[in-house]
Specification:
- The protein is α/β, with parallel strands linked by helices.
- The chain has seven helices and nine strands, in the order αααβαβαββαβββαββ.
- α6 links the parallel β4 and β5.
- It starts with 15 loop residues before the first helix and ends in a 14-residue tail after the last strand.
Length: 230
């Protein structure tokens, strides 16, 4: 999510739900062939036994992530703030469940999932909310479970930009700070981290820098970690 143009003075920024309701299938067309995302799903499916419980946060149209996970035989739940995205996902990936819900409001017992995917769902939150969301997602992991995530690394907070032709407000963390949050705030073991550049498919999107991380919740008592953010 790189800055593509100046926002006009007085122009209202869109909420995440408004943004993705408007983008709909155009978002899938722009990002469905993201190589690092496909590699992350391949890495995850190679580690998980069939029937594993997986939560896809910010599931979008359901493709490619939920579709690939469901095809691999996993029990997939997707959540997204956009009603349009949830409708498309239900149509395109009938083998998974989808719910219109913000990750900040989603409720699940601790240890409910063997893996959580979180590809770019935090960028339109405040930094404080993003950290709390990471901690919540970690709490939903069973011991030994994996969090596979991606973000656009940047040292920004509440910055107004134009992205895919639409005015939005974004926050993020530098790459090293995001990795530190996974390790120190969430207590995860970071197994892989890599920064890459991707050119989305479409005339209205500039190349983006992406940070992909694969992390694992240590084995042991799920109640060992204090302050889960719930």
């Amino acid at each position: 999510m790189s800055e593509e143009g100046a926002q006009r003075p007085g122009e209202r920024t869109l909420s995440a739900a408004e943004l993705f309701d408007g983008l709909g299938a155009d978002y899938e067309k722009a990002f469905v062939r993201l190589p690092e995302q496909l590699a992350a799903v391949d890495w995850l499916t190679a580690r998980l036994p069939a029937g594993s419980r997986v939560l896809d946060v910010g599931s979008g149209t359901g493709r490619p992530v939920a579709a690939l996970l469901a095809r691999a035989g996993h029990d997939v739940t997707g959540i997204d703030v956009s009603a349009t995205m949830v409708r498309l996902a239900r149509e395109q990936v009938p083998g998974a469940r989808f719910e219109q819900c913000d990750v900040r409001d989603f409720e699940a017992p601790a240890g409910s999932f063997d893996a959580v995917c979180a590809f770019f769902p935090l960028l339109m939150m405040t930094r404080r909310d993003a950290v709390a969301a990471l901690r919540r997602m970690t709490d939903w992991l069973a011991p030994g479970g994996c969090l596979v995530s991606a973000t656009v690394p940047a040292d920004i907070e509440d910055v107004d930009i134009v992205w895919m032709g639409r005015p939005v407000r974004v926050s993020s963390f530098p790459a090293e700070e995001y990795v530190r949050l996974l390790r120190e705030e969430c207590g995860l073991e970071v197994l892989h981290q890599a920064v890459s550049v991707f050119q989305p498919d479409g005339p209205a999107v500039e190349p983006e820098e992406h940070l992909f991380c694969y992390a694992r919740r240590p084995d042991g008592d799920h109640n060992e970690r204090e302050g889960t953010g719930r």
